[in-house]
Specification:
The protein is built from twelve helices and 14 strands. By secondary structure, it is α+β, with helices and mostly antiparallel strands. It has a six-stranded mixed beta sheet with strand order 6-5-4-1-7-8. The protein has a three-stranded antiparallel beta sheet with strand order 9-12-13. Strands 10-11-14 form a three-stranded antiparallel beta sheet, covered by helices on one side. Helix 5 crosses helix 6. The radius of gyration is 25 Å and the shape is globular.
């Protein structure tokens, strides 16, 4: 999504955040560019919190929100630079960002330090991602000390530092219609990629060849990135939960597990499926597959508004535990398997997670309500 699309969506989120703050100043920076090696960078990916509030995808940018009776949104970003734009592409610059993107003010990123020292005067609180980056913590301390240094002139520094993520996580937990539409598109692309990979899988091919089919379908349909490193795991490789080598050969009789999703306009999809490389399940494979499918369906039945987060997981675990008993993978009674958690030899993780701008998205996992 281009940053000037859906401006009212981002403005509305900023207004909600300042309302939750009541008073004070919030600071949210985007992610830094990162070197892969020498002078080659990793593909740039913005900070999710920053993007959620701005839709702005350029590096070297900071959003500052001032709450209170006269709330305002300020963007600090790179200046226009014809020489760098020849090499790296278009930049908005402060003036164009203010005119086109709905910010009350925009200033060059180099003006952030003196501006913050002024903006923090007589403010009761500063909200920022406390402890996320040591460099930002140090920078905040410098700003506060600059304000404290003017105390004899009657200027007060914020007395309270609060992690802005505690407010933003609750906002991001419930998706708006724009987010849901983007996530549905990302999921449709991922589903098409999985179908393509299934059609390409056969004995003798390599895991990375199947991975290439996934990546092809992601990009062909407009997704900017894979949402995470794809897992294409044949045979016993599927027992490694975060297997990413993807370099083994597919063999007759193998099951192939694929865990892969794409990122579209910042939003992730995440799909895992397992199927027989040769096109047919063995008897034992079918038994296990049917058990996992039954557990998935039991969990989905519990995914309802008003249910607690743990209910889908508990439903899945109960089905899996009984199935493990039926297949003689564990011993004892169902109550014993659940109490002693002996099922964790085969199922050691949770059943699901939040999804959104991050694959494991922001938001508290509330066990009750």
């Amino acid at each position: 999504m281009k940053p000037n699309d859906h401006l009212s969506v981002y403005a509305g989120r900023r207004q909600r955040l300042t309302a939750l703050m009541g008073e004070g100043v919030a600071l949210i920076a985007t992610a830094p560019e990162r070197l892969r090696n020498r002078d080659s960078h990793y593909p740039y990916r913005f900070d999710s919190y920053f993007y959620y509030l701005t839709g702005f995808i350029e590096p070297e940018a900071v959003l500052v929100l001032v709450a209170g009776k006269a709330p305002k949104a300020l963007l600090f970003c790179r200046n226009r630079d014809p020489e760098r734009e020849t090499w790296d592409g278009f930049r908005y610059g402060p003036e164009l960002a203010r005119e086109r993107l709905g910010f009350d003010e925009a200033q060059p990123i180099g003006e952030l330090d003196p501006a913050m020292a002024k903006l923090l005067e007589d403010q009761p609180a500063l909200y920022y991602p406390v402890g996320a980056e040591a460099d930002w913590d140090a920078r905040v301390m410098r700003w506060l000390n600059m304000v404290r240094g003017r105390s004899r002139a009657g200027v007060a520094a914020p007395e309270r530092l609060q992690d802005v993520r505690s407010l933003l996580d609750e906002m991001r937990l419930v998706k708006d219609e724009h987010e849901l539409a983007t996530m549905r598109r990302a999921s449709r692309i991922a589903a098409a990629a999985h179908r393509r990979a299934m059609q390409a899988a056969r004995p003798g091919r390599l895991e990375y060849e199947i991975e290439a089919e996934l990546l092809h379908e992601f990009r062909r349909n407009g997704a900017q990135f894979p949402a995470y490193s794809p897992i294409v795991a044949a045979g016993a490789n599927a027992c490694v939960l975060h297997y990413i080598a993807n370099d083994a050969r597919l063999r007759e009789g193998d099951l192939l597990l694929i865990d892969a999703g794409c990122e579209l306009d910042g939003y992730a999809s995440d799909i895992t499926r397992t199927f027989p490389v040769s096109g047919r399940f063995s008897g034992a494979q079918r038994d296990v597959y049917q058990l996992v499918l039954a557990a998935q369906r039991a969990a989905i039945e519990k995914v309802r508004a008003g249910n607690a987060w743990n209910q889908p997981h508990d439903a899945a675990v109960r089905v899996l535990a009984q199935g493990m008993l039926d297949l003689r993978l564990v011993g004892g009674t169902l109550d014993e398997v659940l109490e002693k958690e002996t099922y964790k030899r085969f199922y050691m993780h949770r059943t699901g997670h939040w999804l959104g701008l991050d694959v494991h998205d922001a938001g508290e996992y509330k066990r009750q309500g």
